Amino acid sequence: MIKTLWIALLTMLFTTASWGASTYTYSITANPYTSVGGTPAYYTVGLNASGSFTMASQLAPSLSSVEVRASVTAFSFDDGMGNLITQANATSKSFVVTTDLNGNITAFDVSVSATGTPNESIRFYTGDGGGVQVSYGSKSATRTGNPGSFSMTTAVTPDVATTSVPTLSQWALITLAGLMLAGVALHNRRQRRLF
């Protein structure tokens, strides 16, 4: 019984635990619009859309046009005029990505829309030459060609419990482990004397 307790304590001592969860945020700042539509004009050439989406785990390597919206935990996209489409107001969303051997996005077709007054939509895509399309009611803006690229940032967020967990320093842990091993050796030596 004592031996099992010591083994359990040693295992806990030398096991590294994660006290938070990692989130992976993929951000895009699109290149400027090349044409605008609607009368009177709402958007202007030179504005650009931007946005990001967050996942609990990094995108897998070597994906080829895979829809990953089920893994997206949050997103926010701006058409350049301050009109946001987020997870809270979106009525449709699609996150189709292709990744390289390291899980970096190399091609994408990301679109989000919100039905309301007015209807809004934002799309970034690399297929068919690439581009950006946004609309706000009857107003629209597009970019033909290179839409921009996604970059990834990783952040460690604390777990739900926000209380800090006290830990010992590295040398204190080594000393404690040594004392525990000495205690086990002493216990085994006393057991042998009894028999």
Can you describe this structure?
With 195 residues, this protein is α+β, with helices and mostly antiparallel strands. The chain folds into two domains: 2-16 and 168-194; 20-157, no CATH class. The protein is built from two helices and twelve strands, in the order H-E-E-E-E-E-E-E-E-E-E-E-E-H. A seven-stranded antiparallel beta sheet has the order 2-11-10-9-8-7-4, with no helix packed on it. Helix 1 (2-14) runs antiparallel to helix 2 (170-194). The radius of gyration is 27 Å and the shape is elongated. The chain starts with a helix and ends with a helix. 19% of the residues are buried. The model is unreliable at 15-20 (pLDDT under 50).
What key phrases describe this protein's structure?
single chain, 195 residues, alpha+beta, 2 domains, seven-stranded antiparallel β-sheet, 12 strands
Mean pLDDT: 83
Strand order across the largest sheet = 2-11-10-9-8-7-4
What is the straight-line distance between the termini? Answer: 18 Å
Beta content: 35-45%
Q: Which bin fits the share of residues in helices?
A: 10-25%
Structural class: alpha+beta
Number-wise, the strands total 12
| Number of helical stretches of at least 4 residues | 2
Low-confidence stretches: 15-20
* Alpha carbon gyration radius: 27 Å
Write the element-wise H/E pattern from the N-terminal end onward. Answer: HEEEEEEEEEEEEH
